[in-house]
Structures are given as structure tokens and as C-alpha cells.
User: Fold these one by one.
Assistant:
Number 1:
Amino acid sequence: MESSRKLSAVEVRVLSRLLEKAQTMPASELEPWLDSLPAAQQVLVPRLRERLSQISVPVEDPTLIVPVKLTPKKNPDSRIGERVGPFRLVQELGEPGSGTLWLAERADGGKAPQVALMLPADEASAERQLVSLPEHPQVVRLKYAGVDDRGRTFRVMQKLEGVTLAEHVKRRHLNVAQRVQLLMPVLAAVVHAHGEMVAHGDIRPANLRVDDEGRVFLLDWGMGRLLYPATATADMQALARVLEQTLEGASPGADLKAVLQRALQDDPRERYSGVAPLKADLQRVLDFRAVPGPHATAFHRASLFARRHRVKLAGGTLAALLLATALTSGVRHLQRGQKQTERASQAKVYLAQALGEDVDAAASAPALAPDPARLATRLQRTLEQARMSFDGEPVLRGQVLTELALRFRDIGQPEQAQSVLREAVALLQSTAAVSDPALGHARAELALLLVDSPGNGAREQARALIDKVLADCSGTRCEPARQQANRAQQKLLAPAPR
């Protein structure tokens, strides 16, 4: 169907302008105007009709409204018993911001269930055109709207079973991640609405309810607006404020703080462009992935990486130890207190995070890796950062340099790889124990490169490095370095390249 086709960015802007004009037009002039649109815009007419039909909320039979329960307000209003259209006011339930919310029932004495009825707060709200959100499982939409014999606009919705967000969090003792996860379906509902060019316009805790199964529902009183940058931002920041309130009394952590700070920025250049990127960063938090920002240091990324890959960093015990150390002792202790095996894994984690790699994806789909030119630029930038990092832990810096050198080798830059490996060997020779596997690994990898190098004296340098590895590096942890040294030694038996 044409109405299901995804619109381009240009078509969205054109459709938005057409909608705005159509709403100011008398009904008698609408059809002739639609027929007169240029041929290039005629393809948008079906979508335009669809949006116009969504904006006008149909009056449904109030007897079909589903029964549920809300907590009555303690001090009832003097208007109890007053008739509003086909309904009679029973009890005031609260003031969610866009008006006064009432518990109401059918005035004709029928057995239809009670409903929630909204009386707009002021004349401006009463005259505001009804704009409802598209259908979505997390949205409770307006069911009925009308004007009573006194000229008052009223809106009716099914009463929603459940409690407020704050009550649900308190009752269930939710942690930070659970509180974020609680709101993710609501963000998905608003993203869906924005995709249909409708903004909610009234997101606040009073318009969110949680049922007994822990599902959050967004009440839609038809107070929405057509989607523009301003209304998209308003919805995004309203959701951020709801999240901020939901996190009260908890310690949100650096990544979550960064998300909230960015969402609530006044400068449009600094904040999220809409709800979708806000939702994406919150998903990163839930997935233990760093959110971009000054807080996202290499070791912060490394600790998150360990939480995602508990069983893959040289075994689950190592990952758990790395995670516990990073989170409880801090970066400084992590830098100074690692054992040799932990340090090797830490170097790889640092490099993977600095280069923005997904280790699992790279292993399963190497064809998706970035092109060599772009990767070389990223490697060079990471190399410069590594040279200025790891104060107080030169051995760890040497291991990172070794891993970087191997990346340069893998993208076809053996000269750069050899240069960085020489730097790593020199650093490790002056800071590590002669039996340290890190030194043995760097020497063995440099030997392998030198064996294939056409430079004068390269093979003699390789032989000296091989001898040092086999003489100084022993034990289980040195086995990989010794294997590489043996490979280099076997290559020495072959004729030298010309």
C-alpha cells in the first residue's frame, strides 16, 4: 500500500506543510484543494488523508469503554453529580496538567462501567484540536470526545488499572537498570508516534501508569501536536525528566548521568535530536556499552567490556576479576595491580574499545571491518593516545603498543608495525622483568617481522631476539611467545628474501 511506503526526508517536510495548511481550511474547500495539488505532491494525498483522519478523533459509543481503577482524590470537588454530556461526575481524581480528571459514569443510569473524564484546564486547552497518537500496545488512547450543552469540551478514556511509576519502583525495589528498562517501551511508543509525525505533547508522570504485570502505559488525551523539531524536543526532554524523577534515590552511574545531561541541554547542538537517539543511548547503558563523553575513558570502556564478555576474556574468572577490580578499586589500582595474564587481556580490551570494535562481530564477519585507510588513521590516533596513557604502568603501555603493532601488520603496514614493535621492546626491556611474557611476546613478534624484512642485518637482529625469548621466557604464560619464536627460527632456515 502507498500509505505504508517509507517517506523520504523531503516528502516528510512537504507532508508536514500540507497538513498544517489543510487543518486551517474549511471542510468544503478541502477536496478541491487536494485535487489541485501538483502532480509531484499527488503521491502524498493518500498519506495526507490518513493523517487528517487520525487527527479527528471519532466519537465512539461510551458504553464500550473498558473498566479499570484509579485512586480517587481525597478532597472531592463541589461539582460532584454535575452532568457533562452523557456522563455524570462522580469523584475528582487529580489534575494531570492538561485539566481536571474525574471519575464519571453514565448519566442515564445504565450499567456501563465508570470512566475517566478530562475537563480542560482553560479555554485554550478546550479549543485545542484533537490530535491522537497512532495505535501502540503501550498507549491508552482517547475513546470519546464531545461538547456538553454548556459548551464545555470534555474527553473520555478508559480508566487505567495500576499505580504511578514512583509507587511501582518503591513496591518492587527496582534497581537502576530495572528502572531504565521500565521506561523503554514508552520511549518505543513515542518513537513510533514520531515516525507517524505526531508528538504526544503532554508526557509527565501523571500520564504514565504501571499495571500489575509491570507494564507501563502512556495516557493519550488527544493533546498531541504535529511533529516539528520543537515538539519532538519537548517530548524527548519530557521523557528525560520522567526518567530523572524515576531514578530519584538511586545512583545512576556515569553513562546514565551523561545521557540525562545531554537530553536536558538547552543548546540544540548539544542535546539529542529526538527520542530515537535518546532511546539508543539508554539501550547502550542497559547493554553495558559506554555512552560517548568525557567520562568514557579507556578503562571505563574496559570494565564495561568485561561485563559484556564475562566468559570470553581468557575465561570467566579473569573477566570477573577484571570487572570487580575496575569497579571497586578504580582505574589507578587497576593499572598498578594487575597480574601478567590480566594485563595482557586488559591491553586487548583497551585496544578493542579505543578502536570501537565489536570483538564477536569481527570474529564472525571479518568482511565488515573498516577499510584499511580508515583503520590506519584510527590506529595512528590510538597509538598517539597510548603513548600518553598508562602513567605508572609502563609494562601495560608496552603491551598495548605490541597489540597496536600487530594491527598495523594485519592491514599491510609492516614498516610501521616494525617501528612500533621496536618501541614496545625498548620500553619493556627497561621496565619489565626479563622473564615477563609481555617482553617475550614483543620480542618474538618483532623477530617474525625482521625475518621477512629485506633490510641489512634484519635476520641477525631476529636471531638475537629469538635467542633471548627462548633463554629468558619460560613457563606456561610464555608458551605463546616461545611458539612465535620457534616459528621465526624455522623461517631463518629458509633462504633470505631478495
Note: Residues 303 and 323 are 5 Å apart (CA to CA).
Number 2:
Amino acid sequence: MKALVRAWLAGFAVLAAVTFVSPALGLCSPAMTPSPDLALAFADPAATLGTAEGSEPQSEAVREGGPSKAKALLLSVALPGAGHYYAGRTTRAKVLFLAEAAVWTGFVVFQVQGHLRQDSYIEYAGLMAGVDAKDKPEEFYRALGQYMRSDPGPSSYNEDVRREARALYPDDRQAQERYLRENGYFGEDEWEWQSVEDQAHYKSLRKKSLFSFEKATYMLGLAVANRVVAAMDAARSVAKSSRKHDQSQGFRLEMRSDLGSPGSAPGMMLCLTRDF
């Protein structure tokens, strides 16, 4: 029995050595004549390998010899999940599609919320401070929250501007006046809050608006992070698919029917093949 096993292993080793020299080797008869079934196996490896039951359907790129890592990365950057779909990972692709939709939905929601709250504090400033605050620069809205009035008085905004002008141009009265005109608020930009509580409520409304815009910015950061994660995972999926494809090009040991030559009895043959 041991001698038989050693003889079988020796024969197997010889066959394996020959397969490294030839792209495909079939042990089909003592005369080494490939059968029609073996030739069909060489022409269509899918007919020999088959498809595992319960496995995830593969994409066209995977079936054609493996997806491109560069293409998967570009698709993931353009739309997270697209690279996974291209690589045949449809389940992960759907998860990333949903995550991307959630991120941009959040961005739109916070942007709309921020603008609505901005309209609210601008309207409130018009009612309680007597100023038209529409389409003003950001420093104007900050000044509304810091100063009770634009002018006059020691606690007014323009008074601080006058002090800055005197510090910058101590001996030039004209330069001081010019600086005040360029940096102070006059005419339709003047305001005066009716009470400290009104100003505090304005600051609260504005803070909520800025917070909404800040959340919208976070959503943009999540969109970038989603693309980075998707691209890295898509590259890993492509590498994994490539390894599977390489493994499918290894040795195959199969039993095939042998019709034999005309007049001879049919039998079975053991075929050892390897694709390159």
C-alpha cells in the first residue's frame, strides 16, 4: 500500500512539473491525447470553475479579469459607493450611497435652517433697533451685538472709531474725520437698541443661525471624509478581487469521461490543468 501511494505521489509530482512548462496540460490517456471535454475546459474556464452557491454577483469588470484600482478610486472620489459597485461590492455600495445622500441632505437642511434664522435676527434688529440690516457685511452684525447704539455716547460704536482715529492720526484733524467717515455707521446704518434684553435676544438668534451654518460646514467635512474612506476601501476591495482572480488561475484536478478511440471501451481520465 505504501509503495502504491509513493508511486502515485511520484506521478503527481511529474505532472505538476510538466504543468509549469506548458500553459495547460491534460493527462487524458497513456498517449497524452486531450479529450474534447478538456479542450472545452481550456476554452471556457468558467465552465470548469463554475460559480459558488450563495456568492455575491460579480460585476462585469470582475468577470473580465479584475477591476482597475485607479478607476475604482476615481469613481469613489466622484461618488462614494460607485467604486464598490464597479468592483462588484454591491452591498457596500448601497451603504455608501445612503451615507452620501444623508450627508448632502443634512447639508441642505442646515443651510436652509441657517438662512431662516438669519432672516429672523435681521428682522428682529429692524424692529427693536430701528435699522435696516439686510445685506450688510458680517462686521455690521457683530457691531449690532456688541454696541447698544451706533452714535452718540461713550458706549457707542462711532465713539470707539473716533478713539481709534485719534490714536492713528493724533495731529491730523482731517485724517481723523476721514477715518470716521470710512469706518463709522451713519444715516440708514444707525441703530439704537431699546433695551439690553432686546440686544441679548438678537445675539441669541444670531448665534443659532451661525451654529446652523457651522453644522452645514461639518456636513461638507463628512462628505470629504466619506470619499476618503470609500476610496481606501474600494482600493482594498479591488486588491481582494484581484487576489481571487489570481487564485482562479491555479491548478485544477478534474475527472473527465474518456470516449476513447473508435472500437475501444469508454473510461475515465484524471486531468491536471493550470492556466497562465
Note: The chain has a mean pLDDT of 77.
